[in-house]
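User: Here's a chain of 390 residues. Predict its fold as tokens.
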Amino acid sequence: MSTQTLNSIASKELYVQYDWYRNTFPPVIQQSCDEFFLPGIKFAMIGISKNINALMDKDSYFVTKIRIDKQYDMFFRSSEKAISLILDRALGKPNRSFNLNRMTDLEAKIITSFNDYMFNMASKLLSPPPPTELRRTNFDVIHLTFIIKDTEEPKFGKFIVSLPAALLNPANITSKGEKFDNTTFKTSTIDAKIKIGSTKFSMYDLKNLDTEDIVIFDNSNTKKMTLVIDDYEKEIKLNPNLGLITPVDDNNGGNNMGANNLWDSIEVEMNAEFDAVKITLGELKSIEDGMVVDLTSIYDNKVTLKVEDKTIARGELVIINDRYGVKISEVVAQQKGGAEPVAAASDEFSGSESFAAGEPAVAAEEEIPAADQQDEEFDYSDFELDDEDI
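Assistant: Prediction complete.
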């Protein structure tokens, strides 16, 4: 890990000290601004860091360095937008937009005087410098980053106060009670998918798939399935209640006997998964610990068959010997060209006609369920071959 990354985001002591910095310095910084300019500018601390490069980005800054003693300094950095906001409050809105490179002596004196006033108040929060000499090469600084806002207008800027770490005595966060018990959420549920298995399926069998057909999944086992939560996958060791499943005889389907050309013989991978189910965090923890889980409730759910994440059909789970199968109850995908054509418009409406935006010219014969709209239907043309490819 680079020093830059370590100092900017991986310093553990800053994590446990954040509350001390937030409760100590922001009230004093806000008080300084209210007393110097009158109320109207809001300071909000958004972070602490040991790496100034991660904070300054590409903004231009006006920097004031104030000596604490011969070993220590305090820095105040105001972004161009922050200075513009402050000067608008102090001098009124100018006829020109503020440019840090064309800053006048009066404008610079106002910002410097404000930083001096803030230093006098903030330095009271520092510990006395140690009597021992400290080499400048070991000089360690903590940067407090603030967003400042005009309370009356939508104007924002960035303000950074840099403090010598050796003069700070931050307190760490300590637990005030019992530690958090994660068992509280054992009954909370999350959405999960459960993959049943997969199999190779020819294009001939795929385009001739019909209701009441049974698809057997060669890559499946009645004693296990795969749990999927986002990008996380975990094999589930099942203790299924086989009484919920009706065993059927193997119908020896999918033997490609009807395939008579190269396109029909192409094999694609078909996957089977249950519709989204709810699983408790307690069950998930049990799975992580390697326990056998009883998920018999999922067997009442519909099974979706997919090719390349596109829904092909839906059905019910069955068992063929020691493999899972699906008895088709609905075929979602249609063979290319097999759908009934939409009736042509009558002569009465054959001329040009305007429609309101979003209004269909011809009403659909049947409304598509919302669940189907989310799944992209399978297009057999994805697998068509040109003559030169055969």
